[in-house]
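Cast an eye over this sequence plus tokens and explain the fold to me:
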Amino acid sequence: MSSVPLTLDATQTDLAADVGVYAYIVGLVAGVFYRLDANGVPQAMTLNDNTQAAQSFPDSGQLDAAAIAALQPNYPLAWADYSIALARTAPATQLDLSQINTTTVPGLGIGANAFSGRIYVSVGLPRLPFTVQASGYAAPVPYADGPGAQCLFDWIEFSYDSEGNFNGNTTQVDQFGFAMSLDGAPGGSLQGAMSLTRDALLAKIGALTGPFVDSGSLVAVNAAAAAAYPANLSTLRAQSPKTLTAMGSYSGGLTDYFNDTLSAWYLNWQTTPLVVNDGATGYYTGVVDSGSGVLNFYQGQYTTLAQWQAAAPAVAFAMVGAAPSTVQIASIDVWQCANSLTAGGAAQQNVGKNIAAAFNRGVPGYLLDDTVCHSEAGSFYPSGGTWNAWAAIMHAANTNGLAYGFPYDDVCQQSPTIQLNAATQVNVVIGKFYS
């Protein structure tokens, strides 16, 4: 197989020349976890990789005692340093994706057997800790506390298969640390390019009103460890509502944010059915049972209650909300795109993702059709509506309007994904921090 250059370009950013930028490339194939070494060769993760002692980190000698103490909680466990130092001046760092092959990665195939992973990038002295465990590894987290939480980082999600096909996307599902763009050939299109500066985007998130106020979204640099980061950066990241609601204690008014809207639509769906078509499993019609309050789905397309009653179809599946004992989809289900919205078989999951996307975008209704709704993107996030303000900001900030602002943001072709069949090159560019 010909080489497939993966360019990791840290030469175009406006960071000072002495600021370290590191990549970490990890993935999973057939139950085995891999990382790429500095030469781009896949290596199976092993417990022996955890050579960094807990509460220790490389280059700590460059910091004073107060900074070291502030960063030690970033490394609660023994960990593996999988960092690949990226060149800060041209030529940019290149690895060869074709080294991910059936020889270096037994079991590599297509579909579910592709190499499924992430390209993490960190900036500054604190490197990302990966703690290999008996089954899998503990990954860095975007939360305010936990392994890697005091690192300035972001990532790109991707898969690469035995036929050399690359599928990847930029993402702000969990957090925004800094901009990274993604492109490639053949047939790629630039994704992740921002129309706002990092500071301007963080300011928009910090200025959100309603339940987003004081949500804990913005994670500040620990002042005692400021010397470990690029100069004049006060914020490590912004955390998404998905992350905040997963943390529970930080969720505030987000916990029940969609409740009233959900209840109103459940009342509507008692008398006017909800028809969902995701383009894969066909049409399913949802009707709320007036007695139990459960949203039941029936295979087929019934746009009126009379049509549904005349057909008298059997229940295909029911949407039952998150615990404790709720009969309807809950706000936490929408934020997390989880629970009732990921339960059941393929048909139920496909219906669930369309419902999750509709509420996140503020456009629930009587017809959710993934085969046509990409043309309706201009109606998403309507003024005065109830929707995911984080996702709206992320779409507006991307130059092409595409973003992954929540887990099912691919519905209606809104995700920043590129599919490169028989890829010949993949380019990742670290964005600017000050301009």
